[in-house]
Amino acid sequence: MGFIGSGSIGRTLARLAVGAGHQVVLSNSRGPETLADTAAELGPRASAATSEEAAAAGDIIVVTVPVSAFPHVPAAPLAGKTVIDTCNYGPERDGHIPELDSKSLTSSELLLRYVPDALLVKAFNNIFFKHLLSLARPAGAADRSYLPIAGDSAPAKAAVTEFIDSIGYSVVDAGTLAGSWRQATGTPVWGTPYGPYSNEQGQPVGEDAIRAALATATR
To answer: What is the DSSP letter of 187?
Structure first.
């Protein structure tokens, strides 16, 4: 697993991935030396590198950066690879982006303009990082939670589903990248089903609840 961006969601996913037996290569915009402590804390399955190196190293790459940083995501090493997009658009942080403000594109479709040969899957953008850590459950657990994913490549979705299963979650297929607005910031499936931020343990959410939340989204 390669990580482009190592914020709260990135570090949480890396922790879960290491716990599930995956090797992880972390990167951020400030250089690998700033991630030395994080890599050491995660143990021998984790290392830090440049964004280009992390992108080249992973079978699956997680892009978890501000939308305003999309132009800086290395495109060449992502060609043909399964890429998980966890990103959410926030004009107050990212500045106003006309295509996103007008809803003519989803943020994932915008990312695809910068990494056109990647096999993009939207995932993990609808859950608080503390809930992501605390709600992981083994396969077969009665209180296992579901996460929505969206993408245009069936093989990439299958690879991401397998990864998500390995770290303790089941998956609801939420459709295409064009339809990934259904899990964007402020929609019914974003955050709310898993409980308030004040409850750091979160609450498990089943498949039916996620499907219902996706179905009630309006644009």
So the answer is: S
The residue type at 169: Y
pTM of the model: 0.97
SS3 assignment for 111-166: HHHHCCCCEEEECCCCCCHHHHHHCCCCCCCCCCCEEEEEECCHHHHHHHHHHHHH
SS3 53: helix
What's 179's DSSP letter? T
Per-residue pLDDT of the chain (219 residues; tens, 9 = 90+): 999 999 999 999 999 999 999 999 999 999 999 999 999 999 999 999 999 999 999 999 999 999 999 999 999 999 999 999 999 999 999 999 999 999 999 999 999 999 999 999 999 999 999 999 999 999 999 999 999 999 999 999 999 999 999 999 999 999 999 999 999 999 999 999 999 999 999 999 999 999 999 999 998
The one-letter amino acid code at 2 reads G
Give the Cβ contact number of residue 9 at 10 Å.
21
What string of DSSP letters covers 65-127?
S-GGGGGGS--GGGTT-EEEE-----HHHH---HHHHTTSS-HHHHHHHHSTTSEEEE-STTS
